[in-house]
Design brief:
Radius of gyration: 20 Å
Largest sheet: none
Number of helices: 17
Oligomer: single chain
Distance between the termini: 12 Å
Mean pLDDT: 92
Length: 315
Amino acid sequence: MLARVANNLFWMGRYIERSEHVARYLNVNYFSSLDAPNLKSQDRQFVLRSMLFMVGDPEEDSEKFLKEEDVLYKIGLDPTYSSSIINNIKFARENANSARDLISTELYEAINKFYHFVVNYPKEIFVKNGLHDFTTQVAEMTDILRGKIRGTLLHDATYAIISMGINIERATQITRMINSKYNDALLSQGGENEKFSKSFEWTTLLKCAESYDMMRRFYKKTPTSITTLEFLILNPNCPRSVMNSLNQVNQHVKILNPEKRYNKNSTAFLIGRVRSEYEFKYIEEIDQDIKSFIENILESLVDISDKVDEEFFNY
């Protein structure tokens, strides 16, 4: 396989996963605010700022009035904004086109169908009353794509590369969601520690990550900052957790580089190092300084992505 084609497959996986997480964050954040227990979490300006914060484009001017239609259009269907859902899906399709001979017809057709649904979705309907329909469809179509990847591709190097992209992106997006909701929890509770730990924003975070039901079954109690962060970061059995994603990446990199020889400059070594750092961490250590932890994990994920690029995609 050419390194360029491998790079296309990797980023196809990343863009598919990214579009789903952004869509679900828009959906859950917007509609959960309608029955939030405090006025701050219900405030539409607060919700719109949270959306911009999550996609990495926070509004610095706290006095500025944000227009709902403009924010939703920018994150959803704006072709000039690089982080919009429509651009993520366009980029996924472009990368699929470049690796067409390595992916199945079923997967390629599903990506094309997804692309045409998004580019043909009416802007006027989306910003007025189509947010729920659009974001639900995007989340469901990405689920279909993951099913096609798992069910119509040989589980060889092609599958391993796509899956590495998906899992690195999943860990990144979950961490960004945690960062955004941590920020929201601080703002909505005025920094009071007791209220902060029981903030409504932790429930919203779990729903954004499609992990609320799983978490309630596991802990059998109302989400708090400690239990939510432990579940979404450290629990290896939660399919959305950072730890689970790192475990998946570790498995797939061994398919690409099966040699057992010690090499401290390899991707496998770096992934193993990062995994071991979080595998034996207590959540109380993270809870003491959540901000620093978020910065560290995002930095580690960037390092892993760069190392993958250097070892496998350098052409």
